[in-house]
Amino acid sequence: MGRLLRPLLHADHRIMRLSDIVDIDDIQPGEEFVNVDLLDADAVAKACQDVHAILHLGGISTEASFEDVLAVNIVGTQNLLRAAVDAGVPRVLLASSNHAVGFYSRGEVPAGAEGLPDDLPPRPDTYYGWSKAAIESLGALYHRRFGLAVTVLRIGTCFAEPADTRTLATWLAPADAANLVEAALAAPPAGYRVVWAVSDNDRRWWSLAGARALGYQPGDNAERFAAERGVLYAPPQGRRSFGDGALKVNGRIFAMPGAEGLVVKLPAPRCSELLADGSAAPFDRGKGTPLREWVVITDPVRWPALAAEALAFVRG
Length: 316
Ligand SMILES: NC(=O)c1ccc[n+]([C@@H]2O[C@H](COP(=O)([O-])OP(=O)(O)OC[C@H]3O[C@@H](n4cnc5c(N)ncnc54)[C@H](O)[C@@H]3O)[C@@H](O)[C@H]2O)c1
Fold this sequence. Notes:
The chain is of the alpha/beta class. Helices cover 34% and strands 18% of the residues. The strands form 3 sheets. A 6-stranded antiparallel beta sheet has the order 7-8-9-10-12-11, covered by helices on one side. The chain has a 4-stranded parallel beta sheet with strand order 3-4-5-6, sandwiched between helices. Strands 1-2 form a two-stranded parallel sheet. Helix 3 links the parallel strand 3 and strand 4. The site of nicotinamide-adenine-dinucleotide has 20 residues, from helix 3 and strand 4.
């Protein structure tokens, strides 16, 4: 994200002090770089001197072992927040993730609401998501105890373009990410806020109310990529039956939501393999006889990869 945001956050009046554990070798005018390991509290403290605001993006950004996310994401963020308070930095923006609340479903959007609200209590879906929920709460502590203004961004999927059906709903266009960061930097500094960070996608199921209240003006909508991604979402209608809410390619179903997870169509030997190693549960359409080429994937972390596998299988 840092790479995408740097040119978008460039401003004549601003010096951006970039920091990472790996070197950045294309520093531009208006930028400076410090190589800092978030686990090195002294180096973090030094990097926070004479800074007006911090956008904290560093750390582990996908699922990893509990020990690793505990060290890098939790201890690293603690070092950063401590250093911000000690250096008198008034404002910190924390990059959280939709995985902090990954076990909510689209079906839980309150009636009449435009999406799941910003103040949704954590329901993490991974150790990574748990670490994000934990830093959200650490941010709340630093706000209430030390007066730091903290804005938590529950980021959807911030890539140059949405890559698949899910990201047609969760995409945060880089320009919208920059718009939201600018809005959060310009808003009155008091407070602790958690806001969804997502573009105004037709398929989104997260509210933009909190971000808009900060002044966020999303300009993009992932739907413009939908046709070329070649995947259609068939929303459930009326009484539920086989194929409701299914993802189809060329008119054939390759994945669909089930009560216990994502139901995918894969070759029978592959289904057997996933059942044998515990990655999948049998799918029997409620009739007691498991289908040979369908399994239920219960772990959301595996959904994107196995849905892609199912898509490739069914597309042929
Ligand atoms: N990109 C997304 O779609 C997305 C979605 C949700 C949340 N987020 C969050 O936004 C932030 C940025 O995401 P990203 O996609 O750019 O991730 P990324 O993995 O590309 O970037 C993370 C950066 O942190 C650095 N880093 C790792 N360990 C470090 C350490 N010990 N000390 C200092 N730096 C360290 C890495 O070198 C890397 O450059 C992350 O916190 C991520 O969890 C991103």
